[in-house]
Amino acid sequence: MIRIDGTRPPSAGLVAAVTAACERVEDRGMPTRVVVEASGAPDGEWTRGLTPGLVGKWERALRRLERLPAATVAVATGDCGGTALDALLTADHRVVSPDTRLVLPVAAGAPWPGMALYRLVREGGGTGAVRRAILFGAPLEAADALALHLVHAVSDDLPGALEAADGLAGRVPGAELAIRRQLMLDASSVGFEEALGAHLAACDRALRQTDAGTAP
Q1: Phi and psi at residue 38, in whole multiples of 5°?
Q2: Using CB atoms within 10 A of its CB, is residue 128 exposed (0-12), middle (13-18) or buried (19+)?
């Protein structure tokens, strides 16, 4: 369980907490699930004391979370911005309450240009769908986020939705999920010939597991 308070900016402590959680999953070497609880959005002078170096460390910690050999499920309530939105968008399965809004925080009078912007465009089907959010900071309501596939379920029964997500996440071993996740992420930026080798290697791995009787 990782809890992210979006009202607070990235910090060395937050980076360390996410990194430690990732290390526990990576060292365990077995199928598992990570739950990210994300809520809150910053306001005011939230960037005071923030440095490019710290932002870079936070983004690398998020990338590590995004590549875990485990299913990641995010649950969000209320306004979700800043570090909370960052973490939400890295998850494999995202569940939000009906009152949730995805919000890009403002810095220097404009929406923050962090990697949440990148993930919003990549996951939300292109620039047109999220243009107002990225350029003007317009919040994305839960229903709109669902329509854009930025979240996968809207529910006022988050414990029940989380239990349902458990059944989905438990179907595929973590290492296999990580392979398919990476193939999926590469599909929008890697050419066919370059992608072919990685897909064939994954197919070969699946065939060898089937022959050895180790397929899930």
Answers
A1: -125, 130
A2: exposed
89 touches 123 (CB < 8 A) = yes
Dig out the tokens for 133 from the structure: 């959010």
- Our CA dihedral for 120, 122, 128, 133, rounded to 10 degrees, sits at 10
Question: Residue 163: pLDDT band by 50, 70, 90 thresholds?
Answer: confident
What is d(CA 10, CA 177) in angstroms, rounded to the nearest whole number? 28
Q: Give how far the C-alpha of residue 214 lies from the chain's centroid of Cα atoms, to the nearest Å.
A: 29
Give the span between the Cα atoms of 45 and 89, in whole angstroms: 23
Q: Which residues of 59-80 are buried (b: 16+ CB within 10 A; e: fewer)?
A: bebbebbbbbbbbbbbbbbbbb
How confident is the model over 185-208, as pLDDT tens digits? Answer: 787 788 888 888 888 888 888 888
Q: What single DSSP character describes residue 10?
A: P
Tokens of 180: 């398919």
Polymer length in residues for the chain? 216
Q: Which residue has the tokens 């029940």?
A: 160
CA pair distance 148, 143, nearest whole angstrom: 9
Point out which residues pair with 40 in neighbouring strands: 80
